[in-house]
Amino acid sequence: DGGITQSPKYLFRKEGQNVTLSCEQNLNHDAMYWYRQDPGQGLRLIYYSQIVNDFQKGDIAEGYSVSREKKESFPLTVTSAQKNPTAFYLCASSSTGYWGYTFGSGTRLTVV
Amino acid sequence: GENVEQHPSTLSVQEGDSAVIKCTYSDSASNYFPWYKQELGKGPQLIIDIRSNVGEKKDQRIAVTLNKTAKHFSLHITETQPEDSAVYFCAARITGNQFYFGTGTSLTVIP
To answer: pLDDT tens-digit profile of A66-95?
Structure first.
């Protein structure tokens, strides 16, 4: 079955460490997105990519980095510069001509 | 930029009753309005959507209405069931394929 897979489901980070969240899709979608979800807030866009080797900052890109070397993959690195990284991170993808998103099941990141 | 407001933030209904969630948006250029259902620990799933050239859309027990003049759209769930309990998000699409999301409504259906 086609879908979008995020891993790991739970991730713990020590302060000062960088961590990378994985997002893989086999839907042949062109565009991929990373959102952050905090309690009581809507989803906020971190980064998005419309094509391979190109990506743009979203509303809250500071302290995050991404790469898009393959169409199927869009990993997100949470760097030590992100001061409040504890959150639920959602990856999504979409295809040209289809207006909706397909979301992954999310990664919950906790700083310990 | 676009701003999407969603109300209420929590909603409890008796099983079999109807539930209504409302969203307002600010950018008149918004042209697509999906609704997502998110169960605990999972990613959101699209349940219904509406485009700006349509006033109402229905899919079984779920319907969405859009008032472009007033810039608001609503989700209606009839004959609610316990499995409808979840967090519901509205969203508005502006340019390209980017969305602004509401802050979510936690719906509890009481058996």
So the answer is: 999 999 999 999 998 888 999 999 999 998
